[in-house]
């Protein structure tokens, strides 16, 4: 993947605030990068690993991600896509200027749900339940948007953002540390908890102690946390730690055991086990594959 992040200058301007196009590649090729535009990536066909901020996860057919302005990201196809065969990655990408619709979204209450969607996108949003009728409708809107132009394209984009903002089963990808604010979640109790986790991820984090911060009993807190974030408390903490470890493996010269301890793991054995469970490969294999 390389160690340097690239700034991508897109061709959006006052005359063309929205770019919408289909893609059909042998494999994804663009390196670790960021840009000021918001971006929606729909994967109609393709499998691989997705990096968003400090999050690392797999992508599959039907996945949709919404990326905020200046959020670093990278899509890496599975190794088999780089070999001689008929595999392709296909889908649609939509990019629109950060200033586009700014006054409308910020000044009119009818758009407050879209404003919240844009805030959430600062950390990356995943829409992945392709059997859900609402996701099918969102996918359909994305697929057809490139066929529109001018004011019709603007109207279709607003309609798409409206659908995405009203969907209530999305997943937030990156950790709080890479977000530009605490405004992704409106619940002040949750913000308090996420802030605590993000600054103590490298220490032992006790769920009973965290629950008492709100305060709640442990079982009620675990239900509350899962409902609010879409992940169990343990999943959230482990994904945060492994996401940060992924970043360090690619950008730092420290050995794997040191990275493991810096990311909150007490033993290298436990780190290796969790790392492989989340990423599908061992830390050494991961580092070799993505620093080629």
Describe the protein in words.
Helices cover 41% and strands 18% of the residues. It has eleven helices and eleven strands. It has helices spanning 102-107, 112-120, 133-144, 150-166, 188-200, 207-212, 218-229, 233-251, 256-262, 268-279, 283-290, and strands at 6-7, 18-25, 33-34, 38-45, 48-52, 55-59, 64-67, 73-77, 89-96, 125-127, 171-172. The strands form three sheets. A six-stranded antiparallel β-sheet has the order 2-9-4-7-10-11, covered by helices on one side. A hairpin with a 2-residue loop joins strand 5 and strand 6. The chain is globular, with a radius of gyration of 19 Å.
Number of helices: 11
What strand order characterises the main sheet? 2-9-4-7-10-11
CATH architecture of the largest domain: Sandwich
Binned, the helix content reads 40-55%
Content-based structural category: alpha+beta
Assigned CATH superfamily of the largest domain: Jelly Rolls
Give the topology string: H per helix, E per strand.
EEEEEEEEEHHEHHEHHHHHHH
What integer is the average pLDDT? 88
Large-scale geometry = globular
Largest sheet: 6 strands, antiparallel
Radius of gyration equals: 19 Å
Strand content: 15-25%
Identify the CATH class of the largest domain: Mainly Beta
Q: Roughly how many Å apart are the termini? A: 7 Å
**CATH topology (fold) name of the largest domain:** Jelly Rolls
């Amino acid at each position: 993947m390389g160690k340097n992040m690239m700034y991508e200058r897109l061709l959006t301007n006052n005359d063309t605030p929205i770019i919408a196009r289909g893609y059909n590649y042998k494999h994804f090729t663009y390196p670790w990068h960021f840009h000021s535009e918001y971006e929606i990536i729909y994967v109609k066909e393709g499998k691989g690993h997705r990096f968003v901020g400090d999050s690392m996860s797999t992508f599959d057919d039907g996945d949709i991600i919404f990326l905020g302005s200046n959020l670093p990201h990278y899509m890496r196809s599975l190794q088999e896509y780089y070999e001689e065969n008929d595999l392709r990655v296909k889908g649609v990408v939509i990019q629109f200027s950060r200033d586009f619709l700014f006054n409308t979204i910020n000044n009119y209450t009818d758009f407050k749900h879209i404003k919240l969607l844009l805030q959430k996108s600062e950390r990356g949003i995943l829409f992945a339940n392709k059997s859900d009728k609402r996701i099918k409708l969102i996918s359909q809107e994305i697929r057809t948007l490139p066929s529109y132009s001018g004011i019709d394209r603007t109207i279709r984009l607003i309609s798409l953002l409206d659908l995405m903002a009203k969907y209530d089963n999305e997943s937030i990808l990156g950790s709080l540390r890479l977000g530009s604010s605490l405004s992704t979640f409106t619940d002040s109790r949750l913000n308090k908890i996420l802030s605590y986790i993000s600054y103590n991820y490298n220490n032992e984090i006790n769920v009973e102690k965290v629950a008492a911060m709100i305060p709640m009993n442990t079982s009620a807190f675990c239900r509350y946390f899962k409902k609010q974030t879409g992940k169990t408390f343990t999943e959230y903490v482990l994904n945060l730690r492994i996401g940060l470890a992924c970043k360090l493996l690619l950008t730092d010269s420290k050995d794997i055991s040191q990275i493991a301890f810096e990311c909150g793991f007490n033993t290298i054995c436990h780190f290796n086990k969790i790392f492989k469970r989340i990423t599908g490969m061992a830390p050494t294999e991961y580092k070799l594959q993505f620093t080629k």
